[in-house]
Amino acid sequence: MNNLRGESTSDLVSVVIPTLNMSRFLGEAVQSVYEQSYTHWEIILVDDGSVRGEYLEVQAIARQDPQRLRLYCHDGHRQRGASETRNLGVMQARGSLIAFLDADDIWLPDKLAVQVEVLARFPRAAMTFNRVRYFAHMGGKSEERDQPFGELRTGVYEPPVLTLMFLRDAAIYPCPSATLIHKDALLSVGGFDRRFHKVRTDLAAWTKLTASFPVYADDRVVARYRQHPASSVAQMNAAGDYLHYELAFYRWLLRYIESLAPAVRTAIEPFACERMYYYSVQHALRAGWRSRLAWRVAVAPRLAAYRAFWRHGRWLKAMLPGRAPKPEIMPGERAG
C-alpha cells in the first residue's frame, strides 16, 4: 500500500496508548505503530498508575524516541481508570485524528493507511472501525479467530442504527484498537465517560458517537486483540460482575438519551427500557427478592426513576399483580 504521509496536523494521527501494568506487552504494541505504512503519526503513552517497576519500563520506552513519543500520567500518578486515561491522551493530542491502541494489542501494518483513506473518502463519517483478530497463548496452545461482523455490512451508517446494533450484539461493537476518530467529533460528545473505569468505557463512547454522527463500518481485519487473564474483560467475567456492569451502563444510557434529538431518543429507548427491566429483575432475583411481591418492590422504584419508562408504560404495567418477568436468555458477553 502506498505511503500516505502528510505534512500538516489535519492528517496527523495521534495514537493514544493507555497502559496499566502492561509493560510486558507495550513494546510490541509500540513497535506495531512504527511498522505502519502510514507514517504521519505521533504516540501518546498515558500511564494509569502502574506500579513503580512497570512505570520505569514505560519511561524507558518513551525515552527511545522523544520526538514522536510523549508520556503522560495523572496527577500524583494516581489510577483513574480507562476512560479518564484515554481522555488525557486525547487532550494532549496534536493531530486531528485519534487512534487508540491498547497496550496489549498489536496493529497490522496497513491499519492506519486503511482507515485514513476511508475517512478521506467519507468526510461525513466521524469515525471508522474495523474488525480485530482475537489471539491467545495459554497452556502451550495458540488460538486465533476473527471478530464476527454479525449483521453489519461495510459502509456508512446514519444515527442511531449502529447504536442499536452494538447494544443488541456485544460481539460486533468496535474494540478501541480498531477505530479511527475525528478528534473534534469525540470532544463534541464529551469523550469517554469517567463513570466507567474498566469495562463499558468503549461502548459508552461509541454510543455517544453513533447516536450523533454517521460512522463507517469496515469488515477488514486491522489489529490483533490479545486475550489473557489480566485483561479487564477477562477479570470481569472471572469475577461474575457482568450483571453489575450492565446495570450501570443502562442507568447511564437511560439518562443520556434524554439529551438526544427526539427521533434518535425514540429509536433507542424501547430497547434500553427492555434491557433495564430485564437486568433489574435479574438483580432482584439474585439478591433474594424471589416472591412475586418482593421483586416488584425491588424493581419498581428503579424503573420509575427514568422518564423513558413513563413514556413506555408497558414496562411499569409489568409491576402489576399477576404479571411476571418474561424469561429471557442473558445476552452474550464480549470476548476478553
Give a short overview.
This protein has 336 residues and is of the alpha/beta class. It has helices at 23-34, 52-63, 82-91, 111-121, 161-168, 183-188, 201-210, 232-239, 242-256, 262-286, 292-304, 307-311, 314-317; strands spanning 13-19, 41-47, 69-73, 97-100, 106-107, 127-138, 141-146, 155-157, 179-182, 215-226. The longest helix has 25 residues, at 262-286.
* SSE class: alpha/beta
The assigned CATH architecture of the largest domain is Alpha-Beta Complex
Instruction: Output mean pLDDT.
Output: 88
Q: Main sheet, how many strands, which sense, barrel? A: 10 strands, mixed
Number of domains: 2
User: What do we call the CATH homologous superfamily of the largest domain?
Assistant: Spore Coat Polysaccharide Biosynthesis Protein SpsA, Chain A
Assign the CATH topology of the largest domain. Spore Coat Polysaccharide Biosynthesis Protein SpsA, Chain A
Question: CATH top level of the largest domain?
Answer: Alpha Beta
Share of residues in strands? 15-25%
Computed Rg: 21 Å
Explain the overall architecture:
α5 runs antiparallel to α7 (201-210) and α10 (262-286) runs antiparallel to α11 (292-304). This protein is 41% helix and 18% strand. It starts with 12 loop residues before the first strand and ends in a 19-residue tail after the last helix. It has helices spanning 23-34, 52-63, 82-91, 111-121, 161-168, 183-188, 201-210, 232-239, 242-256, 262-286, 292-304, 307-311, 314-317; strands spanning 13-19, 41-47, 69-73, 97-100, 106-107, 127-138, 141-146, 155-157, 179-182, 215-226. The protein has two domains: 13-229, Spore Coat Polysaccharide Biosynthesis Protein SpsA, Chain A (Alpha-Beta Complex); 240-317, no CATH class. It is α/β, with parallel strands linked by helices and 336 residues long. α2 links the parallel β2 and β3 (69-73). Mean pLDDT is 88; it is low at 1-7 and 327-333. Strands 1, 2, 3, 4, 5, 6, 7, 8, 9 and 10 form a ten-stranded mixed sheet that branches.
